[in-house]
């Protein structure tokens, strides 16, 4: 099992080697600016993962450092620094989402959800008071390589999974659910499919966006679709209904081979999606219309977050060039028109 997981993780790292023109005709293009503090200091074999914002507007990422330090959390803005390193050194953090506290946050009150993979099983844990707590929020026997998570105002957590196989099969990905107040709970599968990655909840908590990709042996990725689900509340928890295509990149710009990665919404529900290997970020209206392509100065943007004092500065992160063995991490900035959803909701006391 451990060998299979290592193979899958290495495959995900090599995924970013591909770089193509990922811009749909007629969509306006803007250029993101390099974020200088990270330009020459950060190295990573794995992609920088899980950009996330806390209530103070600070930006963080996991898998911070070298190939041997996937058990770390680092701060990107306003200062670049290591925040936490798991002393057991067996964790592999794939995502992080900061949680809202009842009052203005202090260092003691700040806590976040961590997507953590250890020895063939993934779980959500709580990062609080500057350390990873031992208690598990939730896990599931089939949730072996959780990749990212999204959270609603009501504390519902939606988890994506991405198992990289040369030939993708149903079950390599999906969406699982649990609640931020759960303790040692069994996550509930809501959707089982190909390998899933970027995941986000709309500002009104009514829609879940999740990416799904399929590989074909010898060809690599041949399909990258962003799905739109209605989040339907029931007595036993949320269900995902009314599945429909939000964006099919084969039809949009002929880039089915370029993976969808991290995604975030602004306060109006516009969805930003990174194209890992496509050298940029798409902005989509809530109806799926492409509004903008934000071109990065590196080909492999993996995750993004809207942050800063007004929530309008986008930080786009990822490896500078996935074709190298040991690679520097890169970060770009872009000034958006509207604040991010997470920035707005975390600061609403």
UniProtKB/TrEMBL annotation:
Protein name: SMP-30/Gluconolactonase/LRE-like region domain-containing protein
Key word Hydrolase present: yes
Domain SMP-30/Gluconolactonase/LRE-like region: 110-316
Gene Ontology MF annotations: hydrolase activity
Entry annotated with the keyword Hydrolase: yes
Keywords (A to Z) from UniProt: Hydrolase, Signal
Signal peptide limits: 1-22
């Amino acid at each position: 099992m451990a060998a299979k997981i290592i193979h899958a993780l290495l495959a995900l790292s090599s995924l970013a080697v591909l770089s193509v023109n990922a811009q749909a005709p007629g969509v306006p293009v803007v250029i993101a600016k390099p974020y200088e503090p990270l330009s020459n200091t950060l190295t990573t074999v794995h992609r920088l993962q899980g950009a996330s914002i806390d209530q103070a507007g600070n930006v963080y990422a996991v898998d911070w450092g070298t190939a041997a330090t996937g058990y770390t959390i680092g701060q990107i803005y306003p200062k670049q620094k290591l925040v936490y390193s798991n002393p057991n050194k067996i964790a592999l953090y794939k995502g992080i989402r900061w949680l809202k506290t009842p009052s203005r946050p202090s260092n003691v009150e700040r806590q976040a959800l961590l997507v953590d993979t250890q020895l063939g099983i993934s779980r959500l844990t709580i990062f609080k008071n500057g350390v990873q707590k031992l208690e598990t929020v939730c896990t599931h026997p089939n949730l072996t390589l959780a990749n990212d998570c999204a959270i609603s105002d009501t504390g519902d957590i939606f988890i994506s999974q991405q198992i990289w196989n040369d030939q993708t099969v149903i079950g390599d990905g999906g969406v699982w659910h649990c609640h931020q107040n759960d303790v040692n709970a069994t996550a509930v599968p809501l959707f089982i499919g190909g390998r899933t990655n970027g995941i986000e909840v709309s500002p009104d908590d009514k829609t879940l966006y999740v990416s799904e990709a399929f590989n074909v042996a010898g060809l690599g990725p041949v399909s990258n679709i962003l799905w739109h689900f209605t989040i339907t509340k029931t007595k036993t928890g949320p269900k995902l209904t009314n599945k429909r295509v939000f964006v099919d990149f084969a039809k949009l710009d002929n880039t089915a081979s370029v993976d969808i990665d991290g995604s975030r919404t602004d306060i109006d529900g516009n969805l930003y999606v990174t194209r890992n290997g496509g050298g940029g970020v798409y902005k989509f209206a809530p109806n799926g219309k492409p509004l903008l392509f934000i071109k990065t100065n590196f080909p492999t943007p993996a995750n993004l977050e809207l942050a800063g004092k007004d929530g309008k500065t986008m930080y786009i992160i990822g490896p500078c060039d996935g074709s190298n063995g040991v690679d520097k991490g890169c970060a770009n900035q872009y000034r958006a028109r509207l604040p991010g959803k997470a920035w707005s909701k975390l600061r609403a006391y």
